[in-house]
Design brief:
The complex is a heterodimer.
Chain A lengths: L2 H32 L6 H19 L3 H24 L7 H23 L14 E4 L2 E4 H23 L1 H11 L1 H6 L4 H23 L9 H16 L4 H21 L5 H15 L10
Antiparallel strand pairs in A: 1-2
Helix pairs in contact in A: 1-5, 1-8, 1-9, 1-10, 2-3, 2-4, 2-8, 2-9, 3-8, 5-6, 5-8, 6-8, 9-10, 9-11, 10-11
Chain B lengths: L4 H17 L11 E8 L6 H22 L2 E8 L4 H13 L4 E4 L3 H14 L3 E3 L15 E3 L4 H18 L6 E7 L2 H13 L9 E8 L7 H9 L4 E5 L2 H13 L7 E3 L8 H7 L7 E5 L6 H13 L9 H21 L4 H9 L26 E7 L2 E6 L18
Parallel strand pairs in B: 1-2, 1-3, 3-4, 4-5, 6-7, 6-8, 8-9, 9-10
Antiparallel strand pairs in B: 10-11, 11-12
Helix pairs in contact in B: 2-10, 2-11, 3-4, 5-6, 8-9, 11-12
The chains are: A mainly alpha, B alpha/beta.
Amino acid sequence: MPVELVVNVALAGTLTGLVYGLMALGLSVIFGVVRVVNFAHGEMMTIAMYAAVLLFAHWNIDPFVAALPIAAVFFVLGYALQTGLINPFITRPEHSQFMLLVAVAIIMVNGLLVGFGPDARSVQVEYQLESWALGPILFDKARLYAAAMALLASAALFAFFRFTLAGKAIRACADNYLGARVVGLNVHRYYALTFGLGSACVAIAGCMMVVLVDVTPVLGPGFTLLAFVIVIVGGLGSMPGALLGGVLIGLSEAMAGLFIQPSAKSMVSFALLILVLLFRPQGLLGRRA
Amino acid sequence: MSFDRRKFNQALAAAGTLGALSPFGIVNAQPKKLKVGVLLPLSGVQGFIGQSCKKGADLAPEVIRSMLGVDLEIMMADTETNVDVARTRAERLIQEGANVLVGAFDSGQTAAIAQVAEQRGIPHVINIAAAPQITNQGYKFVFRNFQTAIDIVRNGLSLMGDLFQATNTVPRTAVYMHVNDTFGRAVTKGIGALFPRQTQLPFKIVDTIPYDPAAKDLTVEISKAKATGADFLMLVCRLNDAILLRREMIKQRWNPMGVISPGSPGMYEEQFTKVLGRYAEYCVSNVPWYNPTAPLTKVVEKAFLKRNPKDRLVFHGLNVGFTFEALLVAADAFKRASSSDPKTLADAIRQTNIASKMTLGGPIKFNAKGQVEGIGSACVQNLKGTPTVVLPKNAATAKPVFPQPSYKA
């Protein structure tokens, strides 16, 4: 098999994996702090993709530009969702939280079906069909931009958690719920802030993803599942783990398509998941409980 | 006349018997309308093509009433591009009183509907679906006015040879990519059986790459195809995947001599041209097609434009043509049978002989298996944003372009 073929496929897989990573980062952040698993994560990403399609169709706004306002709106929506709906469920049994978020996901998918119909929609930006060539190696422009944006957004999120007071407070809430309350932190407000940030992450990922794939309402559950696989492989609650997991899954899917068969892509990512669960249940970069 | 208790009881018994028999159509008066359950993938991956077929079903009642004086009641059902949904929708249409079923574009969904129709003894006229097994199972209520996969491949490969001859080209290698669903596998089986016998074709197939019909990304598949260095891409596709695939070819700067389908939807659809613009140019589809000069086409086109003033029939001709003809077959049988009794209707459909038709090929006559033979194909190339017949010469409106000019990404 020609080396350039392997390199090109690996490159495409890695770049897509970075966008997957950003998507999973949102899920990981929410779980790491709020301890609620967002089963509507993929559906939220699909809504962001539709938002990008609408902005492009009506005002010709590039999804990379649209990412910022969409992320801001998602932050507000995420904040409101946590405050209004999820906070009351924080102390309830896990199956109640599960049912709540599954219900939210179903409402989102059906809302999209009602609003947009079942057909695929896409954006048509000029650079979408362009690539740079370095000898026989091709860099797909849209994929490269998407990956760069994913890295940028991830870096911003890391910086927020590491260097800002609010970020430190959120980490304190995640580390010790009772302790955070004792020192006077408004834990529920920080939970809402975290859910807002996770939602903003997934919104940016959606805007990146829409230049790579067409969007349909039923994409959501697939993305939710993919996000779960990624965060479990990378380590639930670990931010670098989510990015690493995304790259690993993107790369392994691409390689499986090349060396085994394209239809075996998902099979390999799930095999990877089983291996991680067997030999490193806390995930590659996760901390042992 | 006195109405004593005995007479009252007899009348009640008679009414009861009538009521009990009426669902079986035994005592129904001659119906004025034929209820046709039309099943199409109006949403989901095949939604665009299903909607295109629906345009044929929408205009049929008006055109058929003026042609045959028969009233059709269309009962439309969405299969959602899902085999199980197709099966349950077919059951429901029969429960709701459909006399005939028509549909459903996709082989997998059609096979499921055919099974239901056969079990319930309701005639099923297939508009589009190519898997040969559908009419090879000895069904008595299933009829198909469309080529089987074997016929599609035979005609498609033959037209491929004609294309190379007409353009004085001799490609030596092809990479074959196909959508991995019931239709794609049926065509692939047909190619496996027929290709080795096509000695007039100058090329060999260097690799076969199947792909998921609902794929969101075809990067790996195109990378593999490109790496074969094949002269051209032989493609069996659907619409959405065809768009994805073409985009990926452009991204990866793969410029083969051309993209030729030996018989599949996708590249002649309006959405393909609308989404890809100039990148849709020169793609070739060897498919069953409609005859633009046939008198029936003129009638259908008029009705089509009345209902869809912004559309052009050329983008919907195949879907509209075969869907309309399926309804025409049902209406024609209903008129001859003067009955909506399913068995009588099925017998009448078996005797169909419609010479004035919209699609290419001989008259609509079903053989013992319920299959129409002699349906023609055309080599259709996207030229100046329009699917254009370039072969056979007697139906061509333009000359074929092969190899295709290199596009600049």
